[in-house]
Design goal:
Low-confidence stretches: none
Radius of gyration: 20 Å
Shape: globular
CATH architecture of the largest domain: Alpha-Beta Complex
Largest sheet: 7 strands, mixed
Order of helices and strands: EEEHEEEHEEEHHEHEHEHEHEHEHEHE
Mean pLDDT: 95
CATH superfamily of the largest domain: Medium-chain alcohol dehydrogenases, catalytic domain
CATH topology of the largest domain: Quinone Oxidoreductase, Chain A, domain 1
Structural class: alpha/beta
Distance between the termini: 19 Å
CATH class of the largest domain: Alpha Beta
Number of helices: 11
Number of domains: 2
Helix content: 25-40%
Length: 339
């Protein structure tokens, strides 16, 4: 099979790999759509090393080979979760496979071969049925751009009519915008890249702030008549965005960190104690929320509007180079993409 191999120094190749074969409860899925994620870019592609595994942790496809399955069969359309886990520890029993405590736990694309290839071998426990009303492309955006923001929005108890600010309108922020808007919130998006500002409008943002034109906090205060925000999702990975979100939060507001961010500072007294603001983080959604997330698609979640580019695996180098410029929405690998 053909798959992506990330090399050192912002470089990659498409190589031949052995075709996977099913074994025990591990089945072979033909990948029909796989996402290119910011973590693929920043943690793998932009590092001075050679990644040991095929990248890709967002995917959907068709089961094409099985050995001793209990849950799936050849011909099943499936959404692929990114984590191979024990299935027995506390987090696994609660549906939070990302936090499996077992030393044998692996994440596809990072510590095990991922989905930016023609085929993937995965434990059948990682597969969830892909409803007929969802395309494979919808399945490929379910875990990160839709699922993680949905989980954050749900934890914040976001209500219709509330003002939600989304900082950073890359794929994750665009997903957050689409979800929050569909749930009835007034969404204000913050993003320096014009293309992504336009995409946010297309998926439901009520107002857009360009941080290059002036102070973000002042602009948002003007848009909210000085009241600030009810909820915020930090999807940019920038410390200053988190600071702005906490400063703008109303009393009893809630800020969720969705993007990866290694450095940030807080002002406990002014940002938390005197406003009783809540701060939370969201990496992935628990399995128990999958049906709620798929219902968003059934209700017309406009994700197709922020999927801007589709590439066959053979054009992975072009896909990564383009995505690294920021001049895209969501980028997918699909076998039917024409280049």
């Amino acid at each position: 099979m053909r798959g992506v191999k990330i090399l050192a120094g912002r470089n990659l190749e498409v190589r031949d790999f052995p075709d996977p074969t099913p074994e025990g409860d591990e089945v072979v899925v033909r990948v029909e759509a796989a996402g290119l994620c910011g973590t693929d870019l920043h943690i793998l592609y932009e590092k001075p090393w050679e990644a040991p595994h095929i990248p890709g942790h967002e995917g959907a496809g068709l089961v094409v080979a099985v050995d001793k399955p209990k849950r799936v069969k050849v011909g099943d359309r499936v959404f692929i979760m990114a984590f191979s886990t024990c299935g027995r520890c506390g987090p696994c029993n609660a549906g939070y496979f990302a936090y499996c405590r077992s030393e044998s736990a692996r994440m596809h694309g990072f510590t095990r071969d991922g989905f930016q290839a023609e085929y993937a071998r995965v434990p059948e426990t990682q597969l969830l049925p892909l409803p007929e009303f969802m395309t494979y492309e919808h399945g490929a955006v379910t875990m990160d751009p839709i699922g993680a923001p949905f989980h954050a929005i749900k934890r914040m108890r976001t209500a219709p009519g509330q003002t939600v600010v989304v900082f950073g309108l890359g794929p994750m922020g665009l997903g957050a915008t689409a979800v929050a808007a569909q749930l009835g919130a007034r969404v204000i998006g913050v993003e320096p890249i014009a293309l992504r500002r336009e995409l946010a409008k297309a998926v439901g943002a009520a107002e857009i702030v360009d941080p290059t034109t002036g102070d973000v906090v002042e602009q948002i205060r003007n848009l909210t008549d000085g009241k600030g925000l009810d909820r915020a999702l930090e999807c940019s990975g920038q410390a200053e965005s988190l600071t702005a979100a906490l400063n703008l939060a109303k009393p009893f507001g809630h800020v969720a960190i969705v993007a990866e961010n290694a450095q940030a500072t807080i002002d406990p007294s002014n940002q938390f104690n005197r406003k009783e603001v809540t701060l939370s983080g969201s990496t992935v959604f628990p399995v128990g929320e999958y049906d709620e997330i798929t219902r968003l698609f059934a209700d017309g979640l406009p994700v197709d509007r922020f999927i801007t580019h589709r590439f066959p695996i053979e054009h992975a180098k072009e896909a990564y180079e383009l995505f690294s410029t920021g001049q895209t929405g969501k980028v997918l690998f699909t076998p039917t993409a024409a280049r």
